[in-house]
Every structure is written in C-alpha cells, then in structure tokens.
Design brief:
With 78 residues, this protein is mainly beta. It has strands at 12-16, 21-24, 48-51, 56-60. The strands form two sheets. A two-stranded antiparallel sheet has the order 1-4. The chain binds FE2/S2 (inorganic) cluster (FES).
C-alpha cells in the first residue's frame, strides 16, 4: 500500500471563504501544502475536495496521519 509523504509536523491554518471550493492534499507531494497542486497524478491518492460552508479559519493536517482528514486531530504530536 502506498503511504502519503509526511509534509509537515504541525497543522496549517487556512482562512476559508464561504462557498469557495478547496482541495486538501492527501499525498503530501504538493508544493502548496496543505492544498492540492496536482502532484498526486499517477499515484494512488486523490485530494479531498469540499466547499466551505462558512467563512472561518480551519486547521489542516500536514503530517497526513490525521483520522479526521482534511483537518488536524492532534495525531502529529504522537
Ligand atoms: S498535522 Fe496531522 S494531525 Fe495535526
């Protein structure tokens, strides 16, 4: 099984805008972590894409070990 690359040790805060579409990088290869830049192409990974339900700041996982993707759940501390 292909594993994602650990892209960071702490979450990244992103200010989401209501109604805007976002794609979270699940492979860890993106140069725009925590968001997808298309580098997953040719791998087993696909980004998690969603539309922000409201304007708010959310903390996105960069270590790729979260159990609640795309958001940080504190697993990076272990
Ligand atoms: S950055 Fe991955 S769980 Fe926090």
């Amino acid at each position: 099984m292909e594993l994602p690359k650990r892209a960071g040790d702490t979450p990244i805060a992103i200010q989401l805008e209501e109604g805007k579409r976002y794609s979270w990088c699940s492979c860890g290869l993106s140069e725009k972590i925590a968001l997808c830049d298309g580098k997953h192409k040719g791998s087993a990974f696909t980004p998690i894409t969603f539309v922000a339900e409201k304007t708010e700041t959310k903390y996105f996982c960069t270590c790729k070990a979260t159990k609640n993707p795309p958001y940080c759940d504190g697993t990076h501390k272990k």
